[in-house]
Known about the structure:
Blueprint: H1 3-8, E1 15-19, E2 22-25, H2 26-41, E3 51-55, H3 60-71, E4 75-78, H4 85-95, E5 99-102, H5 104-110, H6 112-117, E6 120-123, H7 125-128, E7 143-148, E8 158-162, H8 163-176, E9 184-187, H9 194-206, E10 210-213, H10 219-228, E11 233-236, H11 238-250, H12 253-264, E12 268-271, H13 278-288, E13 293-298, E14 302-306, E15 320-321, E16 326-330, E17 343-348, E18 355-356, H14 360-365, E19 373-382, E20 385-391, E21 396-399, E22 402-405, H15 406-413, E23 421-429, E24 433-441, H16 449-456, E25 468-472, H17 485-491
Parallel strand pairs: 1-10, 3-4, 3-5, 5-6, 9-10, 9-11, 11-12, 12-13, 24-25
Antiparallel strand pairs: 1-2, 7-8, 8-18, 13-14, 14-15, 16-17, 17-19, 19-20, 21-22, 23-24
Helix pairs in contact: 2-3, 8-9, 10-11, 10-12, 11-13
Amino acid sequence: MITLLERAKLFKGKTALVSNGKSYTYEQLLTSSKYIAANLLHGERDLNEARITFLVPPSFEYTTLQWGIWAAGGIAVPLCELHPLPSIQYVMEDTKADIVIAHNDFVDFLKPLEKTLGISVLPLETFLKENHAELPEVDSARRAMILYTSGTTSKPKGVVTSHANIEAQITTLVTAWEWQQDDYILNVLPMHHVHGIINVMSCALWCGACCEFLPIFDAHKVWEVIKSGRLTLFMAVPTIYFKLISYWDDASSDDRQLLSNAASKLRLMVSGSAALPVSVMEKWRSITHQTLLERYGMTEIGMGLSNSYLGERRPGHVGLPLPSVEIRLVDANNNPVGENEPGEFQFKGPSVFMEYWQNPEATQKAFTDDGWFITGDIGLLNNGLYKILGRDSVDIIKSGGYKISALEIEDALRKHEGIKDCAVVGLPDLEWGEVVSACLVTDLDILDTRKISEWLKGYLPPYKIPRNYILRKELPRNVLGKVTKNELKKMF
Length: 492
């Protein structure tokens, strides 16, 4: 039984989604999902975990298609609207999907795959037509979804979650963040990622709340929705908060007051998917009186750690384990480390994924012999709350015998009035192993990096101060706003 779909029956008359200017009830969502399931089955009794790929913008149609795939016993594989055709082809080949369902805007874009892969590109409208069929009983242990990792350190891997995994990922957040029926959230996030699918849309639909889609981010439109007073929650990545702050900075003093007052009325605002710079958190708090709740998660585990909904939200920290989540910090030999000692995060619990799709070797490497998922992320327990130091492969710089957190240096650099944003990497060096190197984003025509280094001595010890600098107008990022540090290294 798919509990998410079953729960929707409790809220039939309520508004579930607002999409493209229209409101849709839970009953409409369920009815349309059944039509899609019947059309997908096409006379068969069960899709039996067939992979159904789809390229559809965030919308009512996206949601009903995902639910229809689940109701028919299939595995939902959402594709990213911003990915080039070779990236889409990679997912199609990896999942061995026979069809891709496409919104009208993407049919022509995907058509070349019919020839190269011998698959069918089918328009979404085909599946929205009224149809009826007896739907299969779908056990919660079945595979439900494959989401692809961002591939920042290797080829993207297909992360397989079961219906039970998805339910655990949803319920832990519903409990921790006290979701209610009368909640209303705006979804500005891509829908091929756990942040948009689980944290925003699925949590809202689990508890009878309303989710409004804004398929293309626009700072003006987001602020207009905030000003409307209908939102109770908002979740975004740090770059979105940065853009909302820039919009606020450019507004008149009267408009600033209106925007600040409206934002202050929301009950919860969350930041995730990338490290939240302390400077952004502090600026957002100063203009909205909202302390952003930062949390930590991965495609493989959903959310694992969260600052407190009711208690302390400490800048630069990601709180404590969420309900039903087990965590440990270990050294290179999987031995537990003490407080304030860096270690690797490892997780256990019902929200942890099943496997990497058709990749038993990678799956085996991802878990310890006693069943802990190995994240590759380094952190420490600092005065009762966990702090992320960075990803071992890209954010931990090993220089002259020191393990240096790139995130710590970035936070220090952002305090400088001439630096809008920055990213720090380690570059190979024969003498030091790696040397600390910083890319600075600035609007200034000239920025004296020698003075930057001198200024940094007030915040960091000498071995953490960058030896190389480059200046750019923007940083290379993926669709979720994460800086692609391997691309950044090439810029040096």
